[in-house]
């Protein structure tokens, strides 16, 4: 893995070669990474992994034609061949009226903002092993846990560099530390499995392994002896473990390419009220130590905090340059890409702001409801918003969590769910996409 300075030089040099070969515009992306991981089960080491790699991707434009070629060989000979191959492919590609680099005036020209994305600490395998063992011991110590599916710990780091023929060249580093545990509770046909995990940019921010393991064990035990509710219509609460999935559907529906293709159930909703008045959804790529923070997007565009839902109103699409041109708007700083492909739009640190009422108050407002902790399957229609998924959770009775339920289906339409949902006040930033507990006042519950 190269240093940011070395990576930036590689990307910039590749762009210069592409222009010298006759391209009318070019950009190049360098991605280098390293990762280490350890897995244990029942106190014994099961696996140790270590990987390092680097890749460069070159995108060349010949007028409105373009092509992208990637290589993991960074030798001078290989890069020369990459440029020639990419130039030849671009010349034969079909014309695309929306192809092109991001507008120059949107590129990051100043020093990149400080996002605290890189932790220089790299634990050795013995440290990772001890962390995994501690998590597993804590999980197995929970009464009712009968077996382990394993525990793991990991550490990784990457260097990202991007250069364009528009004069942009910049690089940054990021890191990640993780820990997880998965265990089984009960015996025979009544067994239930669950897990817990955490990830952070900095090791010092990672939750204690014992806490992660304890939570995995308690989750598994709490799922023993599930039943099924009587089919019907119930208030449904989405636990933070799964409530962020609703934001994933929202993000997909406001992506420029989906809107341009008219395959989004929100395609006609820009500027309209989509959520209740008190709901706010924010994308913040500059949050310090955020798991998806970055100083610029995949096209070199300047990024910043953006309120996508303001007081319930949809304020913006998220779009890279190609889909932005289709929609007649400016790129929004959401371009994401790998070395081997063209940019597409994706959110960064996306979250639904905390609501006014606590989780306990939302539970107390429901004499009988269902709390969902796991979703199964992909039964969501992105064109119509129809929503139907298998689920696991608990009954809520008189405001208290009661017996577990499994093998159920929850169904509604995302347009109706968005319009009526209420977020609780228990928001925590633990993932790249975060949401608090969410109450949807009415959904159909049936047998899976």
TrEMBL record:
<feature type="domain" description="Metalloprotease TldD/E central">
    <location>
        <begin position="119"/>
        <end position="224"/>
    </location>
</feature>
<dbReference type="InterPro" id="IPR047657">
    <property type="entry name" value="PmbA"/>
</dbReference>
<feature type="domain" description="Metalloprotease TldD/E N-terminal">
    <location>
        <begin position="26"/>
        <end position="90"/>
    </location>
</feature>
<dbReference type="Pfam" id="PF19289">
    <property type="entry name" value="PmbA_TldD_3rd"/>
</dbReference>
<dbReference type="InterPro" id="IPR035068">
    <property type="entry name" value="TldD/PmbA_N"/>
</dbReference>
<feature type="domain" description="Metalloprotease TldD/E C-terminal">
    <location>
        <begin position="231"/>
        <end position="446"/>
    </location>
</feature>
<protein>
    <submittedName>
        <fullName>TldD/PmbA family protein</fullName>
    </submittedName>
</protein>
<dbReference type="Pfam" id="PF01523">
    <property type="entry name" value="PmbA_TldD_1st"/>
</dbReference>
<dbReference type="InterPro" id="IPR045569">
    <property type="entry name" value="Metalloprtase-TldD/E_C"/>
</dbReference>
<dbReference type="InterPro" id="IPR036059">
    <property type="entry name" value="TldD/PmbA_sf"/>
</dbReference>
<dbReference type="InterPro" id="IPR002510">
    <property type="entry name" value="Metalloprtase-TldD/E_N"/>
</dbReference>
<comment type="similarity">
    <text>Belongs to the peptidase U62 family.</text>
</comment>
<dbReference type="Pfam" id="PF19290">
    <property type="entry name" value="PmbA_TldD_2nd"/>
</dbReference>
<dbReference type="InterPro" id="IPR045570">
    <property type="entry name" value="Metalloprtase-TldD/E_cen_dom"/>
</dbReference>
């Amino acid at each position: 893995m190269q240093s940011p300075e070395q990576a930036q030089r590689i990307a910039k040099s590749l762009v210069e070669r592409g222009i010298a070969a006759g391209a009318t515009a070019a950009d190049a992306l360098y991605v280098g990474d390293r990762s280490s991981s350890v897995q244990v089960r029942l106190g014994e080491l099961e696996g140790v992994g270590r990987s390092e790699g680097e890749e460069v991707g070159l995108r060349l434009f010949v007028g409105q034609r373009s092509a992208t070629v990637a290589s993991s060989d960074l030798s001078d000979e290989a890069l020369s061949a990459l440029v020639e191959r990419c130039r030849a492919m671009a010349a034969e590609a079909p014309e695309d009226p929306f192809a092109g680099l991001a507008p120059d005036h949107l590129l990051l020209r100043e020093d990149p903002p400080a996002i605290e994305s890189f932790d220089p600490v790299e634990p050795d395998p013995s440290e990772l092993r001890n962390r995994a063992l501690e998590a597993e011991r804590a999980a197995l110590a929970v009464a009712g846990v009968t077996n382990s599916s394993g525990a793991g710990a990991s550490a990784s780091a990457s260097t990202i560099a991007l250069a364009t023929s528009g004069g942009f060249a910049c690089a940054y580093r990021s890191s990640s530390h993780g820990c997880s545990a998965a265990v089984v509770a009960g015996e025979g046909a009544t067994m239930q499995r669950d897990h817990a995990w955490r990830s952070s940019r900095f090791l010092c921010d990672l939750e204690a392994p014992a806490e992660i393991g304890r939570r995995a064990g308690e989750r598994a035990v709490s799922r023993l002896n599930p039943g099924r509710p009587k089919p019907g219509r119930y208030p449904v609460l989405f636990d933070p473990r799964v409530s962020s999935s609703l934001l994933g559907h929202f993000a997909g529906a406001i992506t420029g390419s989906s809107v341009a293709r008219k395959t989004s159930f929100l395609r006609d909703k820009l500027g309209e009220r989509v959520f209740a008045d008190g709901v706010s959804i924010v994308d913040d790529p500059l949050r310090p130590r955020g798991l998806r923070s970055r100083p610029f997007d995949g096209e070199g565009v300047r990024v910043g905090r953006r309120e996508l839902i303001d007081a319930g109103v949809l304020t913006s699409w998220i779009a890279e340059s190609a889909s932005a041109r289709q929609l007649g708007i400016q790129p929004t700083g959401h371009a994401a890409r790998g070395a081997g492909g063209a940019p597409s739009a994706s959110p960064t640190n996306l979250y639904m702001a905390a609501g006014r009422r606590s989780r306990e108050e939302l539970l107390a407002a429901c004499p009988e409801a269902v709390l969902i902790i796991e979703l199964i399957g992909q039964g969501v229609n992105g064109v119509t918003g129809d929503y139907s998924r298998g689920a696991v959770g608990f009954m809520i009775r008189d405001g208290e969590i009661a017996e577990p339920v499994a093998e159920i289906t929850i169904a509604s339409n995302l347009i109706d769910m968005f319009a009526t949902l209420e977020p609780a006040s228990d928001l925590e930033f633990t993932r790249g996409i975060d949401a608090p507990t969410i109450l949807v006042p009415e959904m159909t519950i049936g047998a899976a």
